[in-house]
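Help!! Second protein's tokens look totally different from the first
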Amino acid sequence: MFEGEKVRLRSFELSDLDAIMEHWNDLETRHNSGRATPDSRQEREEFIRNSWKLRSEGKAYIFAIENKKTKEFLGHVSIYIQRNRARSANLGIFIYNKDHWDKGYGTDAMKVILNFGFNYQNLHRMDLGVYPTNKRAIHVYKKIGFKEVGRKREIRFMNGKYSDEIIMDILQREWRKKNE
């Protein structure tokens, strides 16, 4: 397990399914992830099982986020390896329950996953995509040290509108300099 100040990253367990299903299909949560349709319990179970498989193959590292003090399930964070030789990966994070938004859990989880990626997986670069409407996430990413490097124009269609996706990244040396 990997720990920050507020959160612990651990392997997903099937026992997390009830907590996942309680909040995962909320429309606002799905809106921030770019997913319009809800998932079934079986689909979320397959996601958990697939997280174990991807980790064992070294293709992705998907962790459950839990509150360090209470052990309450909060969401998940992921690293998907894009290019082995270039040591490049894509990040994703979801805090499922809106009651836990704006409390620092996402910021702490991002710091922990960056530490894992740079110090345990020896990644050189990590990137992520975020929608312009997700101002909270953009603020967090910039605070941690991510830089906007581009946009995918009108890549998303949600609620009758097209929108861009902002691409942000951080290099290992930038992260190390900020965290010395």
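Here's the second one for comparison:
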Amino acid sequence: MDSLEQLESALQASLDDLRISRGERQALREILSEAELSPTQRTLLRKKAFNMASNQLQGSPNHGAVLEWLETICGLLEPAHLAQTSSGETEVLFAPGNAPRQRLRTLLQYASDKVDICVFTITDNTVSDEILAAADRGVAIRIITDDRKAEDVGSDIERFREAGIEVRIDCSSHHMHHKFAIFDDHTVVDGSYNWTRAAADYNQESLIVSTELALVRKFQKRFSELWNAFTETCPNPHSNR
């Protein structure tokens, strides 16, 4: 059985179960990595996945699960389509305007394994909904944010906690002012852009998206440092203010 046939068989097996566990996602990712498929082969594989989903929809009442399966498969195929090299690819998006917000939503929709978010304030429900949807389909989400902004009216941090997402805060009189996130250890976003409606609709902001390996690794290191340094709650919420 060649790599394409192996992948098709694995896709069909996961579709029959209407679920893809984290172990299955990792196995599919390893098969894709070893197969070294060409862009044309990846396109054909995506088409096969769409055909499989279409056939399944005709005989299954659980349309939502089928669509979630297809979304996960597309996410698994997408990173390899933008192969991560030492040089990588970089794009810059500006606000006001919907481009930064939509790019964040797309990255969250395609995330298949893990997302580490380190953002000063998160209040844009359209982005928060995608974070919750990713967590619901099994993506491991971790969030670092500023302790004071977490308590602001409109902050979605409590929604994330209630959904079981791990959150850590800085418990400091100074601000945790970063606005970066790492998707599947493959793509990093950074810039002035807070994940808020005001940033999208009114503010002059920038968002940089990069798959440059060295850059991703530096942000991974910083996230780990902050994650280990911060806590889930502040012992005394007013002691450092």
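Reply: Different proteins will give different token patterns, so don't panic. The CA atoms of residues 28 and 86 lie 24 Å apart.
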